[in-house]
Design goal:
The chain contains eight helices and four strands; from the N terminus they run H-H-H-E-H-H-E-H-E-H-H-E. With 249 residues, it is of the alpha/beta class. The protein has a single domain, classed as Rossmann fold (3-Layer(aba) Sandwich). The protein has a four-stranded parallel β-sheet with strand order 1-2-3-4, with helices on both faces. The longest helix has 25 residues. The chain is globular, with a radius of gyration of 18 Å.
């Protein structure tokens, strides 16, 4: 989705929220956040690798020590096929997908989400009302249309889809477990988000979507912002599709 949703979520009307992300593969996005909000006294940036258990174990203690009470956590860190390509690798076919890339993706996308939630359970849940929003994908509950990737430099990545399906399973389990302690847990499943894609790819994807086009990043951020707000306080255990009607056909 790029950096625009996070810039949008930090707009003045977003309120005083604290968030931490694994942004090492997207250093420019981190720099953009700092440049946009670095002088704002309500903004703090924490560089976190969600696949590193030691870092995750200490993240909320660090935030609390800085005088903040994190009440909304957005689990969005993910390795995608595009990130593997960005590391200088050709996009692997399913037959050529390495166990190393598979396990690395699961470690960040799913185990990382689990570790963040587990640390919330230890440090936050039950101490004050809070919310966890897990970010899945339109491919969490829908198989990809492999033909739209024919001739493209990237494909649908099997490990990514697998982890995004698992994300909502974690949401469902946690929603019931935390309900009596005043915490809500929901999943947002974004559809295809424009991020510099070719006109041909946009056309192919648009034919699969009721709205006929890919999403603008801000359209996903608006839905995230709602789930972060008090207006979503009676929602828990839900999967919110923001996909232009892709999943409604």
């Amino acid at each position: 989705m790029g950096r625009r949703p996070w810039l949008h979520l930090r707009a003045p009307h977003a309120g005083r929220r604290r968030a931490s992300h694994r942004l090492r593969p997207a250093r420019r996005a981190a720099d953009a956040l700092k440049a946009a909000h670095g002088t704002n006294p309500d903004f703090r940036f924490y560089d976190l690798d969600v696949g590193d258990e030691d870092q995750v174990t200490g993240i909320f203690a660090c935030i609390l020590a800085d005088g903040w009470q994190p009440n909304v956590v957005l689990n969005n860190a993910a390795i995608t096929g595009e990130l593997l390509m960005g590391a200088g690798k050709p996009f692997p076919s399913f037959a050529d997908t390495s166990v190393s890339d598979w396990e690395r993706t699961l470690r960040t996308n799913l185990t990382g989400a689990f570790m963040i939630a587990r640390q919330m359970d230890r440090d936050i849940v039950g101490n004050w009302p809070c919310s966890l929003i897990n970010v899945a994908s339109m491919y969490a509950l829908n198989g990809p249309h492999h033909q739209i990737y024919e001739g493209m430099p990237f494909k649908s990545f099997s490990a990514y889809s697998t982890t995004k399906a698992g994300i909502h399973g974690l949401t469902l389990w946690l929603a019931g477990y935390w309900a009596k302690r005043g915490a809500t847990v929901n999943t947002i499943a974004p559809g295809a988000v424009f991020n510099g894609h070719s006109e041909e790819f946009q056309r192919r994807v648009g034919e699969l979507i009721m709205a006929g086009r890919m999403a603008a990043p801000d359209e996903i951020a608006d839905a995230m912002l709602f789930l972060c707000s008090a207006q979503a306080g009676y929602m828990t255990g839900q999967l919110v599709n923001v996909d232009g009607g892709f999943s409604g056909w």
